Amino acid sequence: MTALSAPHWRTRALRLALVALAGLLLLVLLPHWLQPAPPTPQLQGRLVSGRLVYTDAPVSDVLEDVRRLSGFAVVAFPDVGSRRFSGALPADAGGKAAAVALARRLGLTLRQAGPHWALVTPQPAAAAP
């Protein structure tokens, strides 16, 4: 057996370290890669090209879909939740953008009350004396 020079030992040590690092990364990342994708939430509307599309759906169902997709929860009283909505809302811009678009199209107001958001009918302006 012949002795290797210092540059050869460093090269072999570097290769061995790289192989060990690659093996370690494979052991760490492989379980993550093998996990199945999270299930798509069940929606009342259709998800088409980054938009939620509805045809004559109750507002309460639309708000539930927004919550399922984005986690942005909005409550609506029964008189507002029973209204019907047809149209498309942005699904990829976050839940607040969809709630704002829904409120605008139905002539409603999106209000924040503490940590909660609510879709309400706008209050008529008080007459000036």
Q: Which properties best describe this structure?
A:
129 residues, alpha+beta, 3-stranded antiparallel sheet, 4 helices
> How many strands, what sense, and barrel or not for the largest sheet?
3 strands, antiparallel
Architecture (CATH level 2) name of the domain at 46-120:
3-Layer(bab) Sandwich
Report the uncertain regions.
none
Distance between the termini: 107 Å
Count of DSSP-assigned helices: 4
Structural class: alpha+beta
Q: Order of helices and strands, N to C?
A: HEEHEHEHEE
- Supply Rg: 28 Å
Quote the average pLDDT: 84
Task: Please report which band the strand proportion falls in: under 5%, 5-15%, 15-25%, 25-35%, 35-45% or over 45%.
Answer: 15-25%
- CATH secondary-structure class of the domain at 46-120: Alpha Beta
Q: What's a quick, concise take on this entry?
A:
The protein is α+β, with helices and mostly antiparallel strands and 129 residues long.
Structure in words:
The protein has 129 residues and is α+β, with helices and mostly antiparallel strands. It has a domain at 46-120: Phage tail protein beta-alpha-beta fold, CATH 3.55.50.30. It is built from four helices and six strands. The chain has helices spanning 6-34, 59-70, 78-81, 95-106; strands at residues 46-48, 51-58, 74-76, 84-90, 109-113, 116-120. A three-stranded antiparallel sheet has the order 1-2-4. The longest helix has 29 residues, at 6-34. The model has no long low-confidence stretch (mean pLDDT 84).
